[in-house]
Amino acid sequence: MSQYLPQIKDARVTLRHLLTHTSGATAWIDQRDELNASELREAIYNNLTFGADFNQKVVYNDYNFLLLGFIIERVLHMPVQVAIQKYVLQPWGLEASSFTPDPHQAIPTQVRNGILTKGQVHDPKAASLGLHAGSAGLFSTKHDVVKFTLKMLANENELLDETTMRQFEDNQTTNSKLLRSWGWAFVTRKPHQVLLRHSGFTGTFILLDRLTQNGLVFLSNRVHPQPNLEFLEYQQKIYQTFAKEDF
């Protein structure tokens, strides 16, 4: 990773560690939410460490995908959200998906400072980074999310060939005791068979069973209007219920 981001001095960390959330990345940034995009990026470079969990645990952390976004910007010379729009959303025909939605077309997110927010990313770091956030902030519709799911269930698509698609089904960590794919988590279905899972902080998730060509899209808003932490227990039950289905 350091060859793309020389500000990161730890030469152990690779793109694989970022994609599988095995980097152990952590940082404490004082008054983080008060910083603008350039200040926050610099603070991440200066305060980020890769601790004891490096290559020992799978721990989701948005710093991994923020760094991936910074790398994309370095390679393509454009904001990461512009790159996603150009190289992913447009080729896949996800026309209703956007990082800058019309607030009148967006459902309310949460009550923040006494105001019900609409069309604003929930994550504070992504909100500060704006176009430079590779971790969160994409708004979409049921139709587009289903279209995305079908693309990921297919053997190949406009962006990814069959060899690459099959790699999503394999453990991509460098530690054989861990289990994680490229950007996706696993849910065990049967021996030697797993589902791909990706979830969002607000309760949304996608489950993919590439073997049987079935998927589950779950759209929710756990933080409306308040955290609703009890939902997380039910989320796990939904995962397991889908995994037990005999398609």
TrEMBL record:
InterPro entries tied to this protein: Beta-lactam-related, Beta-lactam/transpept-like, Diverse_Enzym_Activities
Name listed for the protein in its UniProt record: Beta-lactamase-related domain-containing protein
Domain of life: Bacteria
Keywords: Hydrolase
Any GO MF annotation of the entry: hydrolase activity
Coiled coil feature spans: none
Taxonomic source organism: Pediococcus pentosaceus
Pfam family name, one: Beta-lactamase
Beta-lactamase-related domain mapped to chain residues: 2-230
